[in-house]
Design a protein that fits this description.
CATH class of the largest domain: Alpha Beta
Largest sheet: 4 strands, antiparallel
Strand content: 15-25%
Number of strands: 6
Helix content: 40-55%
Length: about 240
């Protein structure tokens, strides 16, 4: 249960650069499907090895001129999977005179997005958090490559005869929850690597998150780097 919660928290937030507001008809936030595939690869490994999908039954044609495809998305092993229906229209115009040549691709993508959403991917969008402008601004700041720092005083006040400084107080910094989740994820995923190459590929694909952990909690960052080095050493000694 804890592993499921950790996965959900790890993939729930959405990078604003992969979203687009849809304003016609029902207003909602659209997610770039390839960003979801990229994120799944970062978390599970290469498609076809760490995760993947299959079409489970013949394509069904509905009475409303749509197609429905049952997608099975597996991760880790083929026995660990989610199934969801993906749908798409057969035509691109209201009069239904122009066929949509991409309808099968769209239905497959729809099924993949639904499967990934069940695992927690981009759950902040599906939970309606992106309707809150403050939350959107928070995500823009969190995923920004150049986060704004709080302003500091340019000139310190001058004291002619400073008093002795008060005794230093030891401030206990609370553990950053997101960094802790990443540490548990790293322990699990790097522990499963069977070669130094796998370790390096996993490290490279998650470099942004690892560097972000350093900004959040340096002690946890050091633990992650330490376990990576120890894993590489153990594999080199095999």
């Amino acid at each position: 249960m804890e592993a499921i919660k950790n996965l959900w928290n790890l993939v729930s937030e959405t990078d604003p650069k992969y979203t687009k507001p849809v304003t016609f008809g029902r207003k909602f936030t659209s997610i770039d499907p390839y960003s979801q595939i990229k994120r799944a690869t970062e978390v599970f490994g290469s498609a076809g090895t760490g995760w993947g999908w299959t079409v489970q039954r013949p394509i069904e044609y509905t009475t409303t001129n749509e197609i429905a495809i049952l997608i099975r998305l597996w991760h880790g092993t083929r026995e660990s999977y989610i199934e969801q229906w993906g749908q798409a229209g057969l035509y691109i115009d209201a009069k239904e005179t122009k066929k949509d040549n991409d309808c099968f691709k769209k239905a497959t993508t729809d099924g993949l997005t639904k499967c990934l959403s069940v695992l927690g991917f981009n759950s902040d969008v599906f939970l309606g958090k992106w309707e809150d402008s403050k939350y959107v601004q928070q995500m823009k700041s969190e995923f920004s490559d150049n986060p704004q720092l709080a302003p500091t005083d340019a000139v310190a006040p001058t004291v002619s005869q400073p008093e002795p400084p008060p005794p230093e107080k030891t401030e206990v910094k609370p553990v950053d929850e997101k960094s802790l989740i990443r540490l548990k994820w790293a322990e699990e995923k790097f522990g499963e690597c069977e070669s130094v190459t796998e370790v390096e590929e996993l490290f490279t694909s998650n470099l942004r998150n690892i560097n972000d952990t350093k900004n959040r909690d340096e002690k946890i960052y050091e633990k992650i780097m330490s376990l990576i080095e120890k894993k590489k050493e153990s594999l080199n000694n095999v």
